[in-house]
């Protein structure tokens, strides 16, 4: 949130459609709202079998929200769901204040947090793609009337101009991202030639990835107790004794219902994840929703094509969860999970040991593959 900006008084709205994680999802919306610079004054909930086509929540619940806006002098209403352009328009007309959905809220946080040139390009691209769907649908009533009295020419022309300008900007941003992706690919090829083992930190937002990254690499990446503190990938090299040099990358956190256009736009940043040799899946061990969060992260990894990469579960925040540092192996004696506290440094020696072991296993498998290939050539 920019300094000196007054907090916007917000009402949060959540509808329970019978999914198990409703309470955790609402708690997350509150954190997201605060991260964006809003002050969630109250939360209004309801139960429905399916969304109302016009107002998402139905007219009775919409009137309840309107009363809360009047009583508490509310500036903005934030829905814990994706609203259609028509629903958003109808709600704003009915409530007389700004209405945004979960997608717009996350996009807004990303816009505030992006620091690097690449991050800014990715956020702008995602925002424009989101805006484009609203713009096109928002003007369809003019298209249907094909002009008509008072609507001839300018209305349609304006729409066409807006679409063309948006299209051109999106095209330019995509070209710029492509260029950045090529630069990343060149850097990765150089790393590959040097056989540097690459590790990517992944995990739910606010699981403690940046704190762990800073502790492991002695870096000063921005780390805060808020959602999406990190948007830009940062990489550092660390030395792990016999395992040699390892490159560790910190990446953007994942979240449930992460907007698709964000996953698409951030593909360049997430490339580091796709091409890693090992994923350190950092879990907030003190969160009651940790199992659902692990599931959400794995879903996003699948979406970006990184679900085939070996994972090591890093159970973080053991100090808050009342657990001891430990290293857990599976039935094949492979390290499966490490219990640590990135904040206190407890268990980090075990994590370094686990990364080094995985790096040596990887080097051995590469050597076996090389020998096998040379045997084939000699036959």
From TrEMBL:
Subunit-level organization: Monomer. Associates with the 50S ribosomal subunit.
Protein name (Swiss-Prot/TrEMBL): GTPase HflX
Source species of the chain: Oxalicibacterium faecigallinarum
Coiled coil regions, renumbered to chain: 163-190
Chain residues that bind GTP: 203-210, 228-232, 250-253, 316-319, 341-343
PROSITE patterns: G_HFLX (PS51705)
PANTHER family: GTP-BINDING PROTEIN 6-RELATED, GTP-BINDING PROTEIN HFLX
Any single GO CC term annotated in Swiss-Prot or TrEMBL for this entry: cytoplasm
Subcellular location, principal: cytoplasm
Domain Hflx-type G: 197-363
Gene, per the UniProt record: hflX
UniProt-annotated location(s): Cytoplasm
Superkingdom assignment: Bacteria
């Amino acid at each position: 949130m920019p300094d000196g900006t007054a907090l916007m008084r917000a009402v949060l709205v959540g509808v329970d459609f019978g999914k198990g994680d409703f309470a955790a999802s609402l708690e997350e919306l509150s954190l997201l709202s605060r991260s964006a610079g809003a002050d969630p004054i109250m939360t209004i909930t309801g139960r429905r079998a399916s969304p109302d086509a016009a107002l998402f929540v139905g007219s009775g619940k919409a009137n309840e929200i309107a009363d809360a806006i009047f009583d508490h002098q509310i500036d903005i209403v934030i829905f814990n769901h994706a609203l259609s352009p028509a629903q958003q328009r109808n709600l704003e007309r009915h409530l007389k204040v700004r209405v945004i959905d979960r997608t717009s809220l996350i996009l807004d946080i990303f816009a505030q947090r992006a620091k690097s040139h690449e991050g800014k390009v990715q956020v702008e691209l995602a925002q424009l793609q989101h805006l484009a769907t609203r713009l096109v649908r928002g003007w369809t009533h003019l298209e249907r009337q094909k002009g008509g009295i008072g609507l001839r020419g300018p209305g349609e022309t304006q729409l066409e101009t807006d679409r063309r300008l948006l299209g051109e900007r999106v095209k330019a941003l995509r070209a710029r991202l492509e260029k950045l992706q090529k630069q990343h690919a060149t850097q990765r090829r150089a790393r590959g030639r040097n056989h540097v083992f690459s590790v990517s930190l992944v995990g739910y937002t606010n699981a403690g990835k940046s704190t762990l990254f800073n502790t492991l690499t002695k870096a000063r990446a921005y780390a805060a107790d808020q959602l999406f503190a990190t948007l830009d990938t940062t990489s550092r090299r660390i030395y792990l004794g016999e395992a040699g040099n390892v490159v560790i990358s910190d990446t953007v956190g994942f979240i449930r219902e992460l907007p698709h256009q964000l996953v698409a736009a951030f593909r360049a940043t997430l490339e580091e994840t796709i091409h890693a040799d090992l994923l350190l899946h950092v879990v907030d061990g003190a969160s009651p929703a940790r199992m659902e969060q692990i599931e959400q992260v794995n879903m996003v990894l699948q979406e970006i094509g990184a679900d085939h990469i070996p994972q090591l579960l890093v159970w973080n925040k053991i100090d808050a969860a009342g657990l001891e540092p430990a290293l857990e192996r599976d039935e094949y004696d492979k390290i499966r999970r490490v219990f640590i506290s990135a904040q206190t440094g407890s268990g980090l020696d075990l994590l370094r040991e686990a990364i080094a072991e995985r790096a040596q296993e990887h080097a051995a498998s590469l050597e076996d593959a090389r020998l096998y290939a040379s045997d084939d050539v000699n036959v």
